[in-house]
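User: Is it possible to get a 3D structure for a protein together with its bound compound? The compound here is 2'-deoxycytidine-5'-monophosphate. I've pasted both below.
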Amino acid sequence: MSTPETDVHGCASSLVVPVAGPSGSGEARGSREAARRLGLAYLDTGAMYRALAWWCLDQHVDLHDRAAVAGAGERLPLVITTDPTEVHVLVDGADVSEQIRSTGVSEQVSLVATNLAVREQMRRRQRALIAEHPVGTVAEGRDITTVVAPDAAVRVLLTASEQARLERRARELHGSTDDDALAATHDQVVRRDRDDSTVSQFAVAADGVVTIDSSGLGFEQVVDAVLALVEQRTGRRPVVTA
Ligand code: DC
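Assistant: Yes, that's possible. Here is the predicted structure of the complex:
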């Protein structure tokens, strides 16, 4: 007999959990840890846009030249690993996992992410990466619940108040939530999300997408909320504990 966790042959069926959310909602760390505990692959789609932004800057491609950036997107020699315990991003064989998190990339990546031709390329790559993992994937990114994996059995939107998001990011980036740290984080949270929201809707849940408000939640509570929702909707329980 099949259960929510197995197909008719008793094999674990593929589970795709798309998680979207604005910067600082806990979407990145929360979905990665949920993937680890569920024994699934983890796909950080934002890292793919960052890798292209980094490559364009490295190759002196003008990020305002949409056709040139789209051309670079077609050629991008990208490998992104999907083990949630160790995510690496390689471009042309070089590990650029740290470089793609630099302030320069963070400030300019929206130019790449709002390029519609690039979005099509990235979505193709993302669907192929998700299909590579028969056990399943937790995939995180702005348009994941609505465009890349809209048919998933459980789809999550993590939200949080602007203040909570600013504080969470400031703590991650600067180890503090004092006024200077909040001001330094403002561009990466508020301005970038405003730019990105011109091409994908991630502030409000689409039909069938469940919202988790993480404003008052710590890291463990965000992970627990995602896992509880996955279990409720699919019957799939964590295979690894905290
Ligand atoms: O989540 P992040 O900060 O690493 O994302 C990097 C950029 O890519 C950011 O501008 C949002 C954008 N992005 C997107 O438009 N669609 C996705 N699926 C993932 C990220």
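The longest helix spans residues 179-196. The chain has a mean pLDDT of 93.
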